[in-house]
Design goal:
alpha/beta, Purple Acid Phosphatase, chain A, domain 2, two-stranded antiparallel ribbon, about 30% helix
Length: about 150
């Protein structure tokens, strides 16, 4: 029997979120109304969930992957996947609306319609959407040409 694990709504927040100003700060505060912004607690919970879920045959991680789609938050996602020792070949990522909120993200992510499937086991290179984060490639875009 094939076991598929599902982890959703990670809402990762960068550690230095307090340095935000203007619209980015207002957006983050609005999205977290009534909730404490504790990046370490969120990161630790995500890593633990990913570690447990990675024992399955396939892992589906659905949005919202980040709180509001900043590059730093996608870096944290890459770090969590690495720390949890998730096998890239057995993961599908599906972004959510929060993953598109960051400034200039809409320009890069207008075609984010398909789930990500990893191209190969040795690297985190998404076939369907892309956003650079460390050595991983996570994000949005069109499928590459064959």
């Amino acid at each position: 029997m094939t076991v598929v694990a599902h982890v959703t709504d990670l809402h990762l927040v960068e550690y230095d979120h307090h340095k935000r100003a203007g619209a980015a700060k207002s957006r983050l505060l609005y999205l977290n109304t009534g909730r404490k912004i504790d990046p370490k607690a969120r990161f630790d919970r995500v890593c633990e969930a990913l570690r447990r879920a990675s024992r399955s045959d396939h892992l589906v991680i659905t949005g919202d992957l980040t709180e509001d789609g900043t590059d730093a938050q996608f870096e944290l996602l890459a770090a969590a996947l690495a720390e949890a020792n998730v096998d890239p070949e057995h993961v599908t990522l599906v972004p959510g609306n929060h993953d598109l909120y960051a400034d200039r993200c809409a320009d890069r992510c207008t075609r984010m319609r398909r789930p990500a499937r990893w191209a190969n086991r040795s690297s985190w290179r998404a076939r369907w959407w892309s956003r650079s984060a460390r050595r991983w490639h996570i994000g949005c875009g069109s499928p590459p040409a064959p």
